Amino acid sequence: MSESTGKPGTTHFGFRDVPVAEKQKLVGEVFSSVAGNYDLMNDAMSLGIHRLWKRYFVATAQVRKGDRVLDLAGGTGDIAALLKERVGEAGELVLGDINGEMLRVGRDRMTDRGNVRGFEYVQCNAESLPFPDASFDLVTIAFGLRNVTDKDAALREMLRVLRPGGQARVLEFSEVQAEWFRPIYDFHSFQVLPRLGKLFAGDAGSYQYLAESIRKHPPQAELKAMMEAAGFARCDYRNLNAGIVAIHTGYKA
What we know:
Blueprint: E1 10-13, E2 16-19, H1 20-34, H2 38-46, H3 50-59, E3 68-72, H4 78-87, E4 92-97, H5 100-112, E5 119-123, E6 136-142, H6 151-161, E7 162-173, H7 182-201, H8 204-216, H9 220-230, E8 233-240, E9 245-251
Parallel strand pairs: 3-4, 3-6, 4-5, 6-7
Antiparallel strand pairs: 1-2, 7-9, 8-9
Helix pairs in contact: 1-8, 2-7, 3-4, 6-9, 7-8
């Protein structure tokens, strides 16, 4: 989904309307800015709970020893590091990210942790993946789909590179289900988060965008329908922490 705003040739960048062709560049500037503070950003956005979400996301994935896995928006490598424990020495992990700075930070951190063998780093656009059909047993994307301009294209590409029977999993901030909690969540997102960004990273604007991008992301039922439209079978989702985030799952028939 290119997030049409009703104005031809425009899309959402947070709460702003921008030309479709400019969104990728603007998102790139955000992540180049926050790359060195990415873990801090996630801690601020989730009060540290993102680490538990990611562990659950990986622990419940369909993956076995020796599998080949693609982690899109792989960023600083935290998902890939967890997945490596699941695929073992015989498995392969490909970290894909459109942002070169994020990829460099991830590669350096993985190397510092001793995670070298079995890892590959590819700078790529999720909307047009540079991999052959049926290349992976599992494709994951965590906290990255909402920043993709054409989400439908990205979902189709995820399906294309999966092997038959393979699984795609999306972990993303979603629509809070509890009405009473929404004002609290909004206050944290729009009042606290940008101030934390300014205080710790010297960048309030990027953190403001990230909060806004969550509100523009398709809610749970809509994203499930998008995955079905892209061709995935047995699509489902699970809310975590009252829908602050959701894990979406689909399979290649």
